[in-house]
Amino acid sequence: MAVKIKLMRLGKIRQPYYRVVVADSRTRRNGRAIETIGKYHPKNEPSLIEIDSDRAQYWLGVGAQPTESVQNLLEITGDWQKFKGLPGTEGTLKPQVEKVDKLARFNEALAAANEEPTTAATTPKKKGGDRVGKTADAAPAEAATKSDDVADATKDAAEPATESTQS
């Protein structure tokens, strides 16, 4: 039986991640596996590659053939060079950035929010709100001009009467 070390695809559309598995060469890509020896997340920056070195060395030693993509991953981790006896067994694997605890991030954001000065909203008012404000402001002004006009009309009416009496 021919044994291969290959990638088993998991994840969603456009968000793949893979398991590095040892399986019979005749099985499907996502078929039954003999053993899972690692994982590979290509979408992370830098890509996450975790392979159990001891198990990879064992399976390579008993004759399991890696696929091209798995061989590239083994070269990055340094397992392929160790198996072949080549120099550079440390590999070129980039370390992952350590994630900050969610609770710590929340507390930092909360502290930053408490330090900010409290000012008026920075977003502009909606157009509909401006019209309502303008009509409400304009209504008393119009009422005032109408009452002034009425007062002026009565004043004008009173003036000719006074003029006629004086003449």
TrEMBL record:
Keywords: Ribonucleoprotein, Ribosomal protein
Species: Pseudonocardia alni subsp. carboxydivorans
Gene3D superfamilies tied to this protein: 3.30.1320.10
Protein name as annotated: Small ribosomal subunit protein bS16
Sequence segments annotated as region (Disordered): 110-167
HAMAP family the UniProt entry points to: Ribosomal_bS16
Gene transcribed to yield this protein: rpsP
GO cellular component: ribosome
Basic and acidic residues: compositionally biased ranges: 145-158
Alphabetical list of Pfam families matching this protein: Ribosomal_S16
NCBIfam families: PRK14520.1, S16
Recorded family membership: Belongs to the bacterial ribosomal protein bS16 family.
Residue stretches of biased makeup (Low complexity): 110-123
